[in-house]
């Protein structure tokens, strides 16, 4: 009985995950929709990161904002993602130890 419940729960979990992938593969969207869909991961990442930037030091939000701006600058310069992350961490570390 437990095995049937586990199989049923796995199907209930898998079906909603596979259906959108199957539908998106078979539907051809206009170019503007594809551009919009391609922007969603970046918007979601920004929404996840920005609150953390503001709360690095809650009493001094400019520390996190400065680290975020440095990360943006390094990313615009097309540096490797590891260097972007290290640059942002080093900036926040430097500002928190100095201030």
Report on the structure:
By secondary structure, this protein is mostly helical. The chain folds into two domains: 1-40, no CATH class; 55-99. Helices cover 84% and strands 0% of the residues. The protein is built from four helices and no strands. It is elongated, with a radius of gyration of 21 Å. It starts with a helix and ends with a helix.
Topology of this protein?
Layout: H1 2-26, H2 31-54, H3 61-76, H4 81-98
Helix pairs in contact: 2-3, 3-4
Defining traits:
99 residues; mainly alpha; 4 helices; 0% strand; elongated; AzlD domain-containing protein; transmembrane; transmembrane helix; Brnchd-chn_aa_trnsp_AzlD
How much of the polypeptide forms β-strand, as a percent range?
under 5%
Give the number of helices. Answer: 4
Q: What's the rounded overall pLDDT mean?
A: 91
Main beta-sheet annotation:
none
Secondary-structure element string: HHHH
Gyration radius, rounded:
21 Å
User: Per the principal axes of the C-alpha atoms, what is the gross shape?
Assistant: elongated
Give the class from helix and strand content and strand pairing.
mainly alpha
Low-confidence stretches: none
Number of domains: 2
Q: What is the helical fraction, as a range of percent?
A: over 70%
Termini separation comes to 62 Å
How many beta strands in the DSSP annotation?
0
Organism: Aquibacillus rhizosphaerae
Transmembrane segments: 36-56, 68-95
InterPro entries: Brnchd-chn_aa_trnsp_AzlD (IPR008407)
Pfam families: AzlD
